[in-house]
């Protein structure tokens, strides 16, 4: 049986479908932004890129939990 995706990644298929770009695009965009805190990043995605609040929250939440302590993106 396949394990059900939970958390922010649950929204990834609908984000890709609605905005027409892969999740990696959005994560790279977030990681390259000078903003580092959750709410400012969510507000930025909403204002500058037209992302809905729930989708922006999911993307930012995922991106921030996959950064290391100095704020840079973790490498797999």
TrEMBL record:
<dbReference type="Pfam" id="PF14117">
    <property type="entry name" value="DUF4287"/>
</dbReference>
<dbReference type="InterPro" id="IPR025629">
    <property type="entry name" value="DUF4287"/>
</dbReference>
<protein>
    <submittedName>
        <fullName>DUF4287 domain-containing protein</fullName>
    </submittedName>
</protein>
């Amino acid at each position: 049986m396949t394990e059900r995706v939970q958390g922010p990644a649950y929204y990834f298929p609908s984000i890709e479908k609605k905005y027409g770009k892969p999740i990696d695009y959005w994560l790279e965009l977030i990681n390259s932004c000078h903003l580092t805190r959750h709410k400012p990043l969510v507000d930025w995605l909403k204002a500058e890129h037209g992302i809905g609040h729930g989708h922006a929250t999911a993307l930012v939440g995922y991106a921030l939990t996959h950064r290391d302590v100095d704020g840079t993106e973790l490498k797999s």
